[in-house]
Amino acid sequence: VYVAITSRVEPPSGPETDILTIKFDKNGDQLWEARYGVNNQTDDSAKAIGLDPDANVYVVGEARGNPGTPDADRKGAISVSYAPNGSLRFVRGTVREEDRISRIFSAKVSGGGAIITGPMPYEYSGIRLRTVLRDSNGLPLWTRNYGLDPDSNPSIDAVGMVIGISDTFLIKNGRQLAVWWYDPQGRMPRGSIYRNPYNVGAVSALALDGMGRPTVAGQSSEDGKVANIVVLKYRP
Fold it and tell me: What is the DSSP string of 39-99?
């Protein structure tokens, strides 16, 4: 059993939080622990953990990076990997500014790679949600910008399609529920927007069935006054 938590510590520079990763055996006894962010004088937080087929551990979190990196003086999305025995394999943060995510909305580790979403570092025409797919070395495969703040993790299906949900603007001061698909190369072969006449919509949750068909739950108003729960099912 592996866990990654946000842990409070008190170094000489003052209280801060670090990313603490712990491995337990089947009896619940601790085998090892590893900490990232000690004495970097900022609060770091864990967001997701997962394993690859070789039992290497991957942790995604918000943290300040190593000296000389783009994240050295500000937080970024950090990927930390440990070997099965707890030894550090690598730490990866922002490689290019166009891949930067400073605050993580959602993160999921899949087979050693990671899907991370968060805000773009600036406002531009209502497009604020950034999605980054990282490989098993923590390096970005692609980055795409679409939609507004999401409320749940994106998912990846059996053929590598990344499926996510977000709110999106169709008209000024109106929001609609959007579902989007990215293929393994980062292309968007399809997207779907659930429209209602009063432009009041918000996403809440996403799940895939065994065939990769997404079910989405959210809120929608058909009269402009009362927000109702809406559940949508899509083809793969």
Answer: TSSS--EEEEEEE-TT--EEEEEEEE--TTSTTTTSEEEEEEEE-TTS-EEEEE--SSGGG
